[in-house]
Amino acid sequence: MFELTPWTTPKSIADFDRLLTGVVIAVALFLLLYPIGAGGDLNVILQQNINIIYILFLLSFSFTMMTIKPTIYAGIGTKQSAIKGIFFGAIVGLVMIISMNFKLSTPLASTLSTSEVIAAFYLAFIIPFAEERFFGQTFPYLINRVAKNGWISLVVSSLIFGGFHLFAYGAVSGLIIAAILFRFMATFGNELLKTNTFGLTVHYINNITTVARTFMV
Is 40 inside any structural domain? Predict the structure, then answer.
């Protein structure tokens, strides 16, 4: 029976992973709180920045899963696994964007009330990090604790990932299906290589390419 089981990550690497996640949480909080400090209305700011609240939930939940024993979080793994994940993730990511003629579609975070540049930074760097922490490294392994079946865990987590993207894409079936397939492929690749760097690399290539195209148009 195929099951999703978090692999061993050396303590020094796990500590770095936890620290990096804490830093990204702090950055996301700053993006949320800065407009409040500038004199904005709290209710309006929260409504306009629902994406940041979504990301803070993903990050905070994943950060908690990193610290519990036994952990549910599937981390970076060994240094060798991390390097393999980046290498194969780069290949898959480049094949994706070339096969799509560099026309990947990820909507700019238009619900942010901050500047377009900050929104682009958020989409290119923070969203992939947070979504991979939750959907690629925490949530499917949590489902597997209950389902005891890796395929069910992969399918359910991928469908929920697609459901969350309804808020970003709207009812565009092609993009939702693409998001579901992407999530299944990225999480399965993480499991095969025993590192979260595979999905993270592919996700970064997708989002950074999309942001670059947005500013070049």
Answer: yes
